[in-house]
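Postdoc handover notes: sequence design on the structure in folder B. Input tokens:
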């Protein structure tokens, strides 16, 4: 169970997420048929169980050997998922990194970064109006170290797998999301204080 965070929350505090569920009333076929890109969100919070489920769909562990929900070339897993939490019941506003093996969040930075990220994303309103924004990033060297230059292609394939998983899980949760690729890479890195990771996708998520 996640505990309510205090305002003086330490930078590196970990927050355990609720266990993901493995069944729903939405079939894969229904999720595929209902999947749409949603850019308009209601001003309502997400709950921690919804955030947990979306993160698990993106990069969660699905096998005791460490395999994840999205396929990865050579099981090298170069992706990292950050969450800009703006309106999520149970956690403070701030930026968090998903830790798949612990199914937890690592507190990365305090404060609401959504408007700054919106500016980095060519002023797209969905970024600031969403309850949360997922930022899917990659450390290319984790894959290119094995596959050379072709590893870049594998990383991009993997980001697409993860993003589609989030789309379909959002449908099952009756949430909306959209993938955004129009942004300034360096500005996004500055907003999130990224170093080795390269941002590939922004995915605002919210109630519809």
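Designed sequence:
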């Amino acid at each position: 169970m996640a505990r309510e965070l205090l305002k003086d929350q330490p930078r590196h505090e970990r927050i355990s997420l609720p266990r993901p569920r493995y069944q729903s009333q939405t079939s894969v076929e229904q999720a595929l048929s209902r999947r749409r890109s949603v850019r308009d969100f209601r001003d309502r919070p997400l709950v921690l169980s919804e955030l947990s489920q979306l993160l698990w769909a993106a990069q969660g562990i699905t096998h005791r050997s460490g395999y994840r929900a999205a396929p990865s070339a050579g099981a090298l897993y170069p992706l990292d998922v950050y969450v800009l939490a703006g309106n999520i019941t149970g956690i403070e506003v701030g930026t968090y990194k998903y830790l798949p093996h612990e199914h937890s969040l690592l507190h990365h930075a305090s404060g609401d970064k959504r408007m700054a990220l919106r500016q980095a994303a060519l002023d797209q309103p969905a970024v600031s109006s969403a309850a949360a924004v997922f930022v899917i990033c990659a450390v290319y060297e984790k894959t290119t170290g094995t596959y050379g230059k072709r590893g870049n292609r594998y990383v991009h394939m993997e980001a697409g797998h993860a993003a589609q998983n989030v789309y379909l899980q959002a449908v099952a949760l009756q949430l909306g999301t959209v993938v955004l690729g129009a942004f300034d890479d360096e500005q996004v890195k500055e907003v999130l204080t990224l170093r080795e990771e390269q941002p590939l996708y922004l995915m605002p998520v919210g109630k519809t």
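Context for whoever picks this up: The chain has one domain: 26-207. Don't rerun without checking with the PI first.
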